[in-house]
Specification:
With about 210 residues, the protein is α/β, with parallel strands linked by helices. About 25% of the residues lie in helices and about 30% in strands.
Length: about 210
């Protein structure tokens, strides 16, 4: 499985495309595109690689990870997939924009597909596992590809840091507990692709993350 990363919007969100080179199936994760130029950048990559997006997944429903959902839904006919515990955030995207002082047009949304702990998806012939790791938001999920040995961690785990817990629904103890239970139990060589900033590994975070 291949992983391509794009950095979008003023928050520096990492949007990922996971894709299988044989089937050309693709999964779009955390579409952060905030304007036409960013949308065009993602669309050109998809077209130039002849990809067929089959899933649109949000690791959580904070606004910086959600700017491009409507574009992806309309262009590729995909329904937003996330954990339903973040529905209250999806319904308040306009309110989130006002909270951050953003003067943009964005639609409140409904999570059409509820992704929960233990769910498995197929991309080509490879399984993708859904892990619930709440704490940054109530519905935060991590996407784990055991065969390719990586996780898309959203805003749960960063290189030498963790997600903030001071936003609505955040819970510091829950975040630490679920990171230890769900992520630090993965093999040390598992690559961590976070929602912001550079990649890391589970082993590196065990040794060097001051929060863990």
């Amino acid at each position: 499985m291949k992983v391509s990363r794009f950095c979008f919007n003023m928050f520096g969100v990492n949007t990922y495309i996971l894709w299988d080179d044989n089937s050309k199936e693709a999964i779009i994760v955390d579409p952060g595109m905030i304007d036409d130029n960013e949308c065009d950048s993602l669309d050109r990559f998809i077209a130039s690689n002849n990809l067929n997006p089959i899933h649109l997944i949000n690791t959580h429903m904070h606004i910086d990870h959600s700017f491009g959902i409507t574009h992806i839904s309309q262009k590729y006919g995909l329904k937003p997939e996330c954990n339903s515990a973040d529905q209250f955030l999806a319904e308040r995207l306009r309110e989130q924009a006002r909270m951050f002082g953003l003067h943009i047009s964005i639609d409140d949304l409904k999570i059409d597909v509820n992704l929960k702990d233990g769910d498995k998806l197929l991309l080509g012939d490879e399984e993708i596992h859904i892990l619930q790791v709440p704490g940054h938001s109530p519905g935060s999920i991590v996407i784990y590809a055991p065969e390719s040995a990586f996780v898309i961690s959203g805003d749960v785990l960063f290189n030498s840091s963790i997600g903030r817990t001071d936003l609505p629904g955040g819970n510091y103890k829950q975040l630490i507990d679920t990171i230890n239970l769900k992520l630090l139990s993965l093999p040390d060589d598992t690559i961590v692709y976070p929602g912001h900033g550079p990649e890391t590994t589970i082993g590196n975070e065990k040794l060097n993350n001051p929060y863990l």
